[in-house]
Amino acid sequence: MLKRHMAAAMAWSVASLFPAHAMAQSHQDTDPLDRDIVAVGAGLAVVPDYEGANHYSPVVAPAAIGSVEGHSFVLAGNQASLNLLRDRSGPVWEVQAGPVALINFNRATVGGTHDPRVRALGALGLAVELGGYVGVQKTGVLTSPYDRLTITVSYRHDVTGVHDAGLWQPGVTYFTPLSLHAAVAITASADIAEDRYARTYYSVSPAASSRSGLAAYDARGGLKNWTVGLIGVRTVRGNLLHGVQLVALGTFGRMTGSIGNSPIVAEAGSRGQWLGALGLAYSF
Hints:
The protein is mainly beta. The protein has helices at 2-15, 116-119, 195-202, 206-212, 257-260, 263-266, and strands at residues 37-48, 56-68, 71-76, 79-82, 93-104, 127-139, 148-158, 166-179, 182-193, 222-238, 243-255, 272-283.
C-alpha cells in the first residue's frame, strides 16, 4: 500500500504549483495574491508497490490545495500541511512554517505487494506521522517577477507506535510560469530516517529470513533516499487562475545507505525508483 504514500508525495509536489498560479497574472488592478484561490484534482500515477520495490502498479492520487485568507494549504491523498504565516505579495523573501500530517501506508498490508518474499514478512499496519515544516521562499528569481524558489525542511514522527521514529525531509522547488496557460517546476528532495524507522521497514530478523528466504539484515537510519522531479501544467480551458489544467509529473529517486542495501530493496526490489503521473485539476 505504499502506492498511496507515493501518490501523496506526488500530489504534494504538484500542489506546490498551484499557490503560485496567482503570481502568473501580471495585469490586474489588485494584487492576485490578495484573493483566495483553490484547486482540486486527481491523477493516475504509476508507482512502486512499496518504497524500494521493483514492481509498479497504477493508483489514483487526489489533491485539494490553495490559499485562503493568505494562508496556503495542501491536502494531498494521505498528507496535509498548512502554512500558518500569511503569504506576502510581490518579489520578496518570505518565511513559511506550519504543521504537517501524513498517514504512512508503507507495507501496511500485504495485498498490494507483488513479491512473495516481501509478502512473507507480513503487514506492519498504518503509521500516523505528525510534525511540522519551516521554509523560505523568494519570488522573482530568474525569469520574471513571478517565478519562485522555495526551500523547506520538515520533520514528522510516528504517533501510533508502528515505527515510533521520525523522518527529516529537506526539499527545494523552482517554479516558473511560462504564460497564463502553462507553468513548469523542478523539484529535489531527500528523506533522512531515524534508526527505528529503518529497523521497522527494512530489517529482516532471523525468523523472518527463514520465512521469506531473504537474508537476515539489521538496517540503520540515515539518508534513506533522494528524489528529483519535473512537473508541468497546461490549461485546457480557462487559465491557470480559473479553469481546467492538465498536470504531468515524472520523478526519479534512489534508495541509499543502509536502507538501500537492505535485501528488501537490493534483493527483492530496486534502489532506483520511478514515478509518473498524469492528471486534471480545476482551479477557482
